[in-house]
Amino acid sequence: MSVIEELAREFGRLPGVGPKTAQRLVYHLLKSSPDDGRRLAGAIREAMERIRPCGRCGNFAEAELCDVCASGRRDEDVVCVVEEAFEVAAVERTGSYRGLYHVLGGHLSPLDGIGPDELNVAQLLERVRAPESRIRELILATSAGVEGEATAVYLEGLFRPLGLRVTRLARGIPVGSDLEYVDGSTLAEALSGRREM
Amino acid sequence: MRLSELSLRHFRNLGVQDLQIPEEGLALVGENAHGKSNLLEAIYYLETLRSFRGARDDQLVAFGQDVFRIVGTMEDARGSDATLRVAAAFQRAGRRKKVTLSGDEPPRLGDALGHLGAVIFSPADIAVVNDGPSERRRFLDIVLSLNTDGYLEALQRYRHVLAQRNAALRENRGQSMVRIWDRHLVEFGARVVEGRRRWLRDRGPLFSRYYAEVSGGPAATLEYRPGFALEGATDGEEVETALCRALEASSSREFRTGTTVVGPHRDEVRFYLEGERELDVREFGSGGQRRTVALALRLAEAATIREVRGREPVILLDDVFAELDAGRSERILDLMEREETGQVILTAPKESDVRFRSDALPRWHIRCGQIEA
Hints:
Mean pLDDT of chain A: 92
Structural class of chain B: alpha/beta
Oligomer: heterodimer
CATH topology of the largest domain in chain A: Dna Topoisomerase Vi A Subunit, Chain: A, domain 2
Order of helices and strands of chain A: HHHEEHEHEHEHEH
Strand order of the largest sheet of chain A: 4-3-5-6
Largest interface: A-B, 16 and 21 residues
Order of helices and strands of chain B: EEEHHEEEEHHHHHEHHEEHHEHEEE
CATH topology of the largest domain in chain B: Glutathione S-transferase Yfyf (Class Pi), Chain A, domain 2
CATH architecture of the largest domain in chain A: 3-Layer(aba) Sandwich
Number of strands of chain B: 14
Shape of chain B: globular
Strand order of the largest sheet of chain B: 7-11-12-3-13-14
Distance between the termini of chain B: 22 Å
CATH superfamily of the largest domain in chain B: RecF/RecN/SMC, N-terminal domain
Number of domains of chain B: 2
Number of helices of chain A: 8
CATH architecture of the largest domain in chain B: Up-down Bundle
Largest sheet of chain A: 4 strands, parallel
CATH class of the largest domain in chain A: Alpha Beta
Mean pLDDT of chain B: 90
Distance between the termini of chain A: 66 Å
Helix content of chain B: 40-55%
Radius of gyration of chain A: 21 Å
Low-confidence stretches of chain A: none
Helix content of chain A: 40-55%
């Protein structure tokens, strides 16, 4: 296999990149200055070598602890439980959450052979039970699908008996959207979760 | 709606054809194995996005071709200007299906279902009586998916949770790992049950009437046998409670068999002949009685479209009179003429078999897939 083909094959393994796009990317790199390509290669190498899971919460980290866990200025009473590390960034972007995180690494899915042992559940239990723990609330921010919901039910059953407050992200109408474009089940969810004004 | 134009590209043996469909419909005459049913299959594909004969999409692509494409232009029968163009295409390489509604891809494939409002009558319908309970659930699921908001979504989600729950049972990691799936199983299961029960209750009397009219004798009734004890539940919430109870009660059996043993995936529908003693059609019915049950179900489906969508269904008849005796054929023709049917597209092997609106329906002929108006 030629070097060009090999590079195209590697690009093609990325999500959302088909064979044609992969080829376009290769040709683009070959046409641009060699420095561009080296910078890209360097950035990839750097990221792969330096990013690792945070030793406490599983978020992306460049050191033993991620920025959130290392900050010291976060509210340590509350932990937001997400499925994937990139979801931490989504919650962070809201700018309205000051607590800590825990990354499960997926959701329960017996069809795919994923049970609690395949997720970072034991680590969360350890965090909660640690003598220095100040955790009083878990916010379950697992996905809104069938698996995310079952994972939340599972975690609730595990952590509520430990005396923790366990909450679930509310579901409903996206901010700024018209009712007529909201799909039926979301609207039903929003109706049943309506609030007193 | 009625179909005004149909454009075919490499669907089965139909090749490349652009057809103008007459307002009242047509009778397609041709020898067997020349492609009569393929035309009805293509038309009904626009309704359900799958073959009514149970063929896989890749089997529908013509030999030596990679893509089939069907485009149907539909007009409101009441003569408003609104037309809808439903286009469905499938590519064998990559197994890709693409559907557009007047050029736009709908957010979900499910949104593209049921725009024509058609009912297909076929000799294969007899399977709904003769075969196992899954055929009867399939009939209900198709009718309800096309005519009841939210049913298809509930059904798909129910199946998905059920698969996860069954996998959890097989893993055998204890009760708690199975129970976490129950909330959604019960929620979506109850919606499926409610949909099926309501349809069978509302359409049951109509089914009986149609059966009696076609058979020219006593009526038949249908009965819903849910896959768990409903315990007199009358609304969605009570159905949920009943399903919860049934799951709890069957827990030890579930772990023994490694599968969920109660729920709508075990639903059954029974048909009974009325008389001095009620007789189960599946056990005691004659061939003619079974066919009549299947016909009456389709007629009830047509009535559903008429009521839910407020317009005449397009009736597709695939050589249905071949296996009915003369009396039944006459009576069903009478019945269809009386119910305000809209467009009718029927197939028959011989001219003399075309008895429906015999003077009014234009005759088309088909030979080796080529259709001539």
